[in-house]
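FAQ: What does the model actually see?

It sees only this:
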Amino acid sequence: MKQQNYNSKRYKQMIIKEQHIVYQNRHLVIELNNYLVFYIIKPKIKMKEFFKSIRKQILSGRQITHPQFNAILPYLVQEPDMIRLGGNNPNRIIQKVFERYTPLIKNLQHDRATLDHFLSDETCDENADDPYEGNPLKPNGIKHPLIS
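And it is asked to produce this:
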């Protein structure tokens, strides 16, 4: 397994980008922090250390991961403010809470996968003689059905 180099330029740029996204959405950080503090204070909740680690992460300007958010989502959807967002439909409440906190979740807002690479003119050359040229999986002796 490759070990993360915490002194690399790319890692530092990633941290700066995360901190900028979190700073732009500091109202969400404050709101989520208030909920996390409330859960930490509650006597019957058993995940206090987990909530503390998420709280520390967002207060330091870091985004949380998707699994971390999924772990706190059941708690958030029970809050009266969140119920007001989605009405009586439980699926809509979950959707609205997720949409609300998307900026605080890593890799969900800017790094979306697209098909641009596959649909670009460079990869779709209609005048190419052999579509398998340079492909190690080229079928031997079999002609492409669309190429005469």
